[in-house]
Every structure is written in structure tokens, then in C-alpha cells.
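so im writing up the methods section and need the histidine kinase record in one place, dumping it here so i stop losing it
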Amino acid sequence: MKSDRSRYKFIKYFLIICIPLVLTLTIVLSLLFDAHEDANKAIIEANERLSVQLGEKTIDYVFGVIRGDALYLAELSSLRQWLDSGDSTAYSRLTEDLLAFLQFRQLYGKVRFIDKHGQEIVRIHNYEGKPIITPQEQLQNQFELDFVQKTLALSERSVYISPFEPTIEHGVIVQPIKPTVRFTVPVFDSNNELRGLIVLNYKGERLMRRLRTISDLSVGNLGLVNEQGRWLLQPHPAGESGFMFQSQGTETFEQKFGEEIWSFVTRESPIGQWMHENGLFTYVKVNLAKIQNPMGGLNTQDSETWVLISYVSPKIIAANIAEYGRNLALAGALLMILLVLLSGIVANYALQRRRAENRLQRSELQFRRLLESAPEAILLVDQAGHIALMNSQTEKWFGYSRNELVGHSALQLIPERFHQAHPIFQQQFVAETGAQPISVGMELYGKRKDGSEFPIEISLSPLETEHGTLITSIIRDISTRKEAEIAKQRAQERYRELLNNLPVGVFRSLPDAKGSFREINPTMVNLFEAESTEQLLAHSFGEFYCDLAERKALMGKVLLQGYVNGEEVRLRTLKGREFHAGLTAVKKKDETIGIYFDGIVEDISVRKESECQIKQLNENLRVRSNELEAINHELEAFSYSVSHDLRAPLRALDGFSRTLLDEYADQLDQRGRDRLKRIRLAAQRMAELIDSLLKLSRVTRTELKWEVIDLSKLANEILDTLQQMEPDRKVRYTVQSGLIVRGDAILLRIMLDNLLSNAWKFTARNQQAFIEVGCNVTKERIIYFIRDNGAGFDMAYADKLFGVFQRLHDPHEFPGTGIGLATVHRVIHKHGGQIWAESTIDQGSTFYFTLDEKEII
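--- predicted struct ---
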């Protein structure tokens, strides 16, 4: 009977304790699971938005580069020369340039030039990384193809981007299927007449590999479809070419996911996301006509719209959540077992407490064990202030042994300055508290045996024993907490100091009718010319707007999209001064004050004034540029007029002199014939001077066309030509390979031709003539040089070297017009470089020059 009552009481205590704990644990686990599920979905949604945006940026970048290449080829100088001349040399150079381009750019499978009748003029294939020129007999007429018709209808500097298409040869699709995007540009000659088009076949699989890489890094699967919903890229590549063969019955996006989701994707919004019962769908529309071109100012026509779509199936979402649920369930089961065990222990303890009188010795032993296992230092102090009992944690923290503390005063554990401050050491503590337990959370410092101190917190309570009342003192080491509090306080001080030192106004305001301030920094006080922070806080933000309509529109924008960035408004200070301000604000929400705005205000009056000045300067510059252009046109017309007017009398002098020599030579003596020859030579030299002056004038007026130039190849061509003109001369020359620069091909050829011709001329008397072309590379720049071992010159006259008509040698000894080096100087100057020379008489000369080259891609 007694055993049954004990069992009933145990079950009662157990249920009273266990049921609330189990319910609480169940609720906490459920809340944790719900919170994790929401967080996991938010992370997946953000990740998929980032994936489609990264895919969009990838397409933007790749097609921007290709468009730039197509426009570059349409402006190729060798193509222009061939269109103007039509000779075989220009055609060979065009073929070489396109061959070099395709080898340099491995992005493309084919590059072609097609004339306006659709006939291929040049076609180069990229066969396994090696460009191959197609023989003339294999060139085709493709006038009937869609991309040819559309490109020929475009205006100058326009680009046509075709849809993904298979590669077709002689009307047959090349196998295996290689999806291709064609970038085509109409080509106009110098008379602005349409002559044909440049075609670049971009290898579509390169873009697909990049998009698959992005897809591999995300949770979902990234796909790409065209406007008809046919796959350009999907997780299973076997269906990606379905857009090319509609008859094969390949599954479209709408057929795979349903009309409802396809309608969501094809709506007007350029980007969207939908958590549907069939999964998470995230898309962004890629309109090829709106992709920004890095060259600027170009038109893209007849381009289609693609849709980048990321799909995460419900299974993947559930799998991400299920693992956490399993772990949470396992942890919950373990906690349930622990709670049941704890409830049983507590219930048993409550039951056994009734039998404490019979088990005092056992209880004391359990108490001591509990005391020793406590993580805090625990002391029992008698009414005289002596330590009666302590645990091992006290020994560890204070460095004393039990024998050194038990029976001794507790004052040795506290610095002297706290001896009278804490009730543990006051004898009246027990008398005042009586038998009621008390907990005192007072912070002070403990003192170790070695004299060092550390922050502690002590909780006290009286304990009635058979030996009298003892004071139980639980001591906690709060060093970590103190350090965290100090660090937090310092961080707050640094944050406040940073906020106060910012050169822009920082504020917090409410979205009410007035826009009341909640907080401001000192810069706001100065910005609005207030006498103090309190004065400015007494006003509202709405009072400082010059136009309340601006504030209303800005408030609506913040509430709608959650933020504004750099909005320009006009504000006035408390003293009535108006100024332009840049306003940035973000909407936030707090449980106490509700919705509020945090933002910054910057005075941009100086910037606005500068913008106005710059606009005016640009307008003045445009007017001046138009005036200079008109003057240049007049100078050009004048130059050609003078050239024509001077050439006529010179031709007459030369012609009549030649007639006299041919018909009346027998009637003239030796002196007469000599005089006529001198007249002819003077007339011919005058004609050469006119040609040189016109060439110098054209160099000055020519607009640079930047392109990649092989300076080594150009120098070898010029030296080979000079050798062919004088085959009897033995000249040894060397040209350093790999001299690749960017500049105007025509002007740089003129510059090299003059310098190498001079070197060839001034080494004529040297039986072992030598010419060298190379460069010296320094940290700052590349210095090119042309060195010879010819006649040289006196460095005392080096400052006159590059002047017009300046000669340092007798014209009978070394013929020339004295304009060549002036032309060289102007070419180098137009390229932003410098030129100088070093020479010793009869030992040769070295001409150095630099070029301010644009970046070689």
C-alpha cells in the first residue's frame, strides 16, 4: 500500500514537470523549423536571381565584344584600300589581315566579306584552331540568304545579329550541328557607297559553356529560350537544337512547364520570379537590341529577345529543407529523452525530499559532489566572516589551496578598497535578512594569491544549518563579459565619432506630413545654418524644401521602392539660402516607432555650378571645333589650288626646256645645253618640293585610324623594296621581330619609309653598310630605334634636324628635299610620341622614337 502511494506521487510530480517541458520543446522546434524553411527559400530565391543576372551580364559582355570586332573589320584599312583600288596587292593584304584576325580571335568559326550582290569575296574557316582560306572556286553566292538581305538594307555602322542557326554549306546543314550566331555589318567605301558586308560566325557553344558553368554554381538549372519558347540551352543538351528543326517535335518550354508559367515568363516585365507549386521559376529577358555597345553610338536592328530562366524543382527545395528537419528531429528526440529523464530525476528528488531526515548523510555527500561540479566558485562563510566550505573552482580561480582558505577570513579574496562595500563581510547581513534567502548581484573585483585582480559578480543567500546561519556566496568570473561590454562601448563611441565627422549630413526622420527629425549629425546643423542641434530638431525636414512637390514625389518613390539614391532636390537653410542637394534615403521599420527614413544630405551646389560651366565650355569648344574644321577645309582647298597653279608653269618650264634640248641642241653650245639642263633640274626639284609639302600637309590633317600594326613586317617590306630598287648595293640589315604597335598604318608606313630611306641614302658610300631596326624596353615606356653606320651629322645642329627645308648635308652629295624628317616628326607627334637622334660624323646615326600607343587587345 505504501509502495502504491509513492508510485502515484512520483507519477504526479513527473507529469507536472514533464508535460510543460515537452510542449515548450515541441513549440520551439516547430518555430526553428519554420524559420529555417523561410530562410532556405529566401536564400534559394536570391541565389537564382543572381544566377540569371550573371547570365545576362555574360551575354551582354560576349556580344558587346563580338559587335566591336565586327565594326572593327568593317573599318579595316586593308578592306578600304581594296575597295578603293581593287588591285591584287590590296586583296592579298585584306586576306592576310582577316587571316591574322581569325587566328588572334578563336571565338569565331568563320569570317567572310560578301559583296553587295551576295558573292563571297573572301572566306576564312577556323578549322580546329587553324584558320584556312577558302579557294576562289569554292566561294558561293548567298544573296538569297536572310541575313544577307537584312544586312544590305542597313545604314552605315549598323549591326545585324542573327538568331541561333546551324552552319550550312551548299544548302546542306553541317554535321554535327554547331549552333552559330552571325554578326554582320554593311561595308561602305570612301564615297559612302554600299559595297558589301562583313560576316562573323560566332561559335554558339562557347556562350552555352559559360551559361552552363553559371548553372553548375547555382542550386537550380539555368536555361535559355527564344521568343517561341524553344530551347537554346537546357539541362539536357540533346534538345537544345530543337529551335532549328521545328519538325522534329522537340519539347518547348510551354510544353514542358505549362501555359500558365509560360504566360508569366512572357509578360512585359523584364525580370521576375515565381514560387509555383511546380517549383521556383526565375527569369530575365535579354533583348539583343538593347545590349550596350562599348564603342557607343551604334544601332542594332532586327534582333530577337531571349529569356534566361532558372528552374528549381520542388524536390530540390524539399531536399534542402529535409536534411535540416531530420537533424532537428534527431536533436528534438534526444532533448525529449533528456527532458523525460530530467523530469523523472526532479520528480524523484521531490519524492525523496520527504525522506531527507533518514538520508542526511547521503544528501550531504550529494551536496558536496554538486558543489564540486559547479562551474562557479562557491563559498560558505560563517557569521564571523570565515570560510567554512569551498569548492575546487575557488582554488582554481584564486590560486589558494583549501588549507589556506578554510577557517580563514574571506577578506583576503577581495581588494582592500572593497572590504566595507559588500554585505558578505558585514556581520549584520544575517540579522537583517533573517531566514529569507536573498540574491545580491553586485559587481566588484576578486584578488588572486599573486595579487592580480579580475572582475567578479557575487550572489548571496543565507543558509540555515545545524551549525548556525551560513552565507552562501556564488562567485562568477565576468572577465569575458566585461571585455565584451568595453568593446561594445568603444565600438559605439567610434561609430558616433565617425558619424559626427562625416562631411555629409546624416539624419533619421519620420514619414509624417512634416518629416520630423529623430536624429541628426553636426554636419546637418552646419548644412542648414542652424545655431544648435536642438534648434534644427525643432524643425521638420519638409520645411527645408523649396518645392513641396519635389518632397511629395520623393516620399512616394521611397515608400514605393524602399530607397532613393542621389536624388537632386533644391533645399533652403534656416537663413533662407537656397542650395542644390543630393539626397539618399532608405525606408526602415522599427517595432517602437514604425516606419522611418535613414538618409544622407550632401550640398552639391558647387558640382551643379561646375556642370553648368562644363556644359558651356563644351558648347564653346564645339563652336570652335566647327570653326577650325571650316578653316582646315579652306586650307586644304588652298593647298590643292596652289599645287595646281604652281605645277602648270613648272610643267611648261620642264617641257619647253626638254623641247629645246631635243630640237635645238645642235644650235646650242655646251654652256647653253648646261643651262637648259639646270632649268629642267630646278623645275623637277620644285615639283618634288611641292609634292613633299602637300604630303606634309596631309599628314598634319589626317585623322588617325587606330589598328594593330606589325612594325617588324612593315620595316622588312620597305627595306626589301629599297634593295630591289638598287640591286647592286650590298647592305646588311636586321629587324627585331615582334614589334607590334597600335597606330595609323598609313602614317606609320610614311614615317618608317622616310627614316629607312634616309638610312639607305646616307650609307651609300660605306662598302659595309649596316641598318638595324629594334627597340629598348624600360619600366616607363618602349623606345624604338633605327640605327645605321652612314655619314652621320654634327650634333651641334641636332635642334634643326626636324625643321622644314633644314639640311645638314650638301644636296649634290646626298639629294633630298629637306622635308622628310619634318614629316616624320609630325607623324610621331600625332601619335603622342617623341623623336630624337644621336650621331657622330662618318660613324652613323641612331633615330629614337616613342609612341603613345592605345592598349593592344
